[in-house]
Design brief:
By secondary structure, the chain is α/β, with parallel strands linked by helices. It has one domain (6-279). The protein contains 7 helices and 8 strands, in the order ββαβαβααβαββαβα. The chain has helices at 82-90, 122-131, 149-152, 163-186, 197-206, 254-266, 276-279; strands spanning 6-9, 37-40, 109-111, 136-140, 191-195, 215-219, 244-246, 271-272. The strands form 2 sheets. Strands 3-2-1-4-5-8 form a 6-stranded mixed β-sheet. The protein has a two-stranded parallel sheet with strand order 6-7. The chain is globular, with a radius of gyration of 18 Å.
């Protein structure tokens, strides 16, 4: 694996982890600005790996994928994920789920994300990736888990979120920038980018109007257990999907993923010390 290979390391938004699918038929730019994209993460980035695993945590049925050009593929959203948008911006096809790849198949990335796979020792995992060739790595924070419906509807709280849960993840998030700076300085030729997923996620939840959203409290799709589960199979989602923050009790809608990816790729407020577009030039 060459040093120029891109790795998009996506930190879990919750304790659930999963993956996503590629489609060469989706339009990409003629000349990619990166040779490949590898994705690690949870169900926020799943695109089909769990379809091939013995698990009940799947999203291969409607209304999941209702706005995706291939329909339900295993993505836990109505459409594309953050990783999908970043692949498009890089001019790459969507990284295929690891379990869908056949031997000797030429790919421009792989998605290893998988729901309910647990939490990994991050530093050791990153060092292992470096050893096998990873040089450009984007690591996102843990998102505002205290704001997701599966938490807010089960626990008493004042305000929009259960801040006790958000405070717990700050112990990790606060130490992440220093860890990434240390890795960049100690691993020759490497560049580690810090993605402020918690900040932009919380900002969009508490100030939805700034992001073109109306509802940042309720799931868009119909769920079991008072809005604390995944989507009920083949149920009809809300009519104003583009104005909703949450798709189900755990995951976000395509418009929110688009905001996160766009800010990280082109902006200066989410990813630092540079954005992904700048990272492509070094």
């Amino acid at each position: 694996m060459r040093a120029k290979t891109w790795w998009l390391l996506l930190q879990p938004h919750s304790s659930i982890l999963m993956i996503f699918v590629i489609s060469s038929s989706y339009p990409v730019t003629a000349k990619p600005i990166a040779p490949a994209l590898y994705v690690f993460g949870d169900s926020l980035f799943d695109s089909g790996n769990n379809n091939l695993l013995p698990t009940l945590a799947r999203a291969n049925y409607l209304p999941y994928g209702v706005d995706f050009f291939e329909g339900p593929t295993g993505r836990f959203s109505n459409g594309r994920t953050v990783a999908d948008f970043i692949a498009e911006y890089l001019g790459l096809p969507y990284a295929p789920p690891y379990f869908s790849i056949r031997r000797r198949r030429s790919v421009k990335g792989i998605n290893y994300a998988s729901g309910s796979c647990g939490i990994l020792p991050e530093t050791g995992t990153i060092l292992r990736l470096y050893e096998i060739g990873a040089r450009k790595v984007i690591v996102f924070e843990i998102g505002p888990v205290g704001c997701i419906p599966s938490i807010t509807r089960k626990h008493k709280h004042q305000g929009q979120c259960v801040e006790e849960f958000n405070k717990l993840v700050t112990y990790f998030n606060d130490l992440l920038p220093t860890m990434l700076k240390n890795l960049t300085s100690t691993l020759p030729g490497s560049t580690f980018i810090h993605g402020r997923a918690h900040w932009i996620g919380y900002d969009a939840v508490t100030k939805p109007q700034n992001y073109g959203l109306v509802d940042s409290v309720n799931p868009c799709c119909k769920t079991w257990f008072n809005g604390t589960s995944g989507c009920i199979p083949f149920s009809s989602p809300c009519h104003n999907i583009k104005q909703h923050y949450f798709w189900d009790a755990f995951h976000l809608t395509e418009p929110v993923y688009s905001v996160i990816a766009t800010h990280c790729f082109n902006g200066t407020d989410v990813c630092s010390p540079m954005n992904i577009k700048q990272l492509a030039t070094i």
